[in-house]
Write a structure and sequence with these properties.
The protein is mostly helical. The chain has one domain: Rhopdopsin 7-helix transmembrane proteins, CATH 1.20.1070.10. It has twelve helices and three strands. Strands 2-1-3 form a three-stranded mixed sheet. The chain is globular, with a radius of gyration of 21 Å. 36% of the residues are buried. It is a multi-pass membrane protein. GO terms for molecular function: copper ion binding; G protein-coupled receptor activity; odorant binding; olfactory receptor activity. This is Olfactory receptor. Belongs to the G-protein coupled receptor 1 family.
Length: 312
Amino acid sequence: MEGFNQTRVTEFVFRGLTDNSMLEMLFLVTFSATYMLTLFGNLLIVVTIMFTPRLHTPMYFFLSNLSFIDICLSSVTVPKMLEGFLLERKVTSFDACIAQLFFLHLFACAEIFLLTIMAYDRYVAICTPLHYSTVMNMKVCAQLVFALWLGGTIHSLVQTVLTTRLPYCGPNIIDSYFCDVPSVIKLACTDTYLTGVLIVSNSGTISTVSFLALVTSYTVILVSLRKQSAEGRRKALSTCTAHFTVVVLLFGPCIFIYTRPDTSFSIDKVVAVFYTVITPLLNPLIYTLRNEEVKNSMKQLRQHQVFTKVFT
């Protein structure tokens, strides 16, 4: 590709979250604990669903996929961030930067599509319960998951091509703790206005349109709940509230960052930490603490020492 032939920069230097050594140590301890809890919590959900036959339903199938994506999403950025807290000079090679960018968008986009599918699943279950088993059978669920990974891959390839086709001849300092399209293209030795427009039309549009579709879906669900029994309304509201909380936590930062790639704010790093570090941790907490079925299944598996066998 022409962009590769013009590339002179061989490495990028991260500014990181802070240059205060005391804060770096505090962040190292805090985010290390957060990352370990993220891995453990999401893996716990995957194992619980895998070893509990009554949880082999579309909703929990999607939930296990969400936990898997959260493990991958946090693993793209957090280990490199933790390494940076220990190093005075935070460096990554050009190829490693592009790889990080690719996988970040792959997993983030896959999660956006998955949350949209989960909203559709809840819509079918609540609004057309008699047709649910036909519409959302496991074959359809598997096809939807394949489609979301395909869509995420295409989206990520587009973002990667848009980034690598640009010439980079210096500077090479990224004002962040990881590589992302908006922060990297600012370092290109050419006008990036058109690339910025394409990013908005890709990432920004996907985030915004998916979010509006989700809001519409949940609005229809809330309206239809008036016909449900009190117990049915309670269960549906509990599930939908958990889903919508996750939606806001992910979509808010994505819309904030990717609808304005040419503009930077001081709060951008905080927003980035939220969706790359905090949200993957909150997802298992939101779904397990509010879900009696999952909690009961975990207790039963613990009694049978399933977790001991899996985690050892």
